[in-house]
């Protein structure tokens, strides 16, 4: 409790000295960060533990809080910090980010080993120091900048793959929905046809009965053409003899 009170006093003293220019600059820095890397938003190294994430978020969020910062985009910067903390404190999201960071490190290390093969002096020094030489190099500003850029590249590629996969999923869902609608429409037309067929059943049965009685099929009052007589003086009709068995 005492430690927390001391920390609050230090923060209060710090923000009393922070001017409007510093607050505005911090807003601009946050908004210029790579959107897929929350470590950049909180200005933290990639190996920062969750406790450091909480502490840094508290410090920066107070600095750019819309109630204290007059910058027109302070609200956006404040929201970006909140999202960054949420991602870094989420176990699944944090694990994903660390996996991308480790993959970026391995790529840079492999590149470094290829370069050392061409530089015998550095190669010998690396072997003699038993890894200390490489550890010092990875702590250097040069390596950290390369790592930062490589992480950006990897995260961008992963996000692009995710969006492509989401697009394919959406397209497949759209196709399935269209097939489902077409199937529903087909069954709807089939039911309507069956209903219409059933509605005309009585008329069809009646027509069939009339046909069976008269041997004729046709509408009542229908005018039929006259039949020609067998002996037609104009010889326009000739009756062929019927063979009897």
TrEMBL record:
InterPro entries: DnaJ_domain (IPR001623), J_dom_sf (IPR036869). It comes from the Eukaryota. Pfam families: DnaJ. Residues 170-245 are annotated as: Disordered. Residues 170-204, 220-234 have a biased composition (Basic and acidic residues). It comes from Dioscorea zingiberensis. Residues 37-102 form the J domain. GO terms for cellular component: endoplasmic reticulum. PROSITE patterns: DNAJ_2 (PS50076). This is J domain-containing protein.
């Amino acid at each position: 409790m005492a430690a927390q009170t001391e920390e609050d006093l230090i923060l209060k003293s710090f923000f009393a000295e922070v001017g409007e220019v510093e607050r505005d600059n911090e807003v601009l820095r946050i908004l210029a960060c790579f959107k897929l890397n929350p470590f950049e938003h909180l200005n933290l190294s990639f190996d920062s533990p969750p406790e450091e994430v909480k502490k840094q978020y508290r410090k920066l969020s107070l600095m750019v809080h819309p109630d204290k910062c007059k910058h027109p985009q302070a609200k956006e910067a404040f929201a970006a910090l909140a999202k960054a903390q949420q991602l870094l404190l989420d176990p699944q999201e944090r694990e994903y980010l660390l996996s991308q960071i480790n993959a970026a490190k391995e790529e840079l290390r492999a590149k470094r080993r290829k370069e050392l093969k061409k530089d015998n002096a550095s190669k010998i020094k690396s072997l003699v120091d038993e890894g200390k030489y490489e550890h010092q190099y990875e702590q250097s500003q040069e390596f950290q900048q390369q790592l930062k850029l490589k992480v950006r590249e990897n995260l961008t590629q992963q996000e692009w793959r995710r969006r492509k996969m989401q697009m394919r999923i959406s397209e497949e869902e759209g196709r399935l929905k269209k097939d489902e609608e077409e199937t529903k429409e087909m069954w709807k037309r089939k039911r309507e046809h069956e209903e219409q067929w059933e509605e005309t059943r009585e008329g069809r049965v009646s027509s069939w009965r009339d046909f069976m009685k008269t041997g004729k099929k046709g509408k009542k009052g229908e005018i039929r053409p006259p039949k020609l007589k067998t002996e037609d003086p104009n010889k326009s009709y000739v009756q062929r003899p019927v063979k009897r068995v």
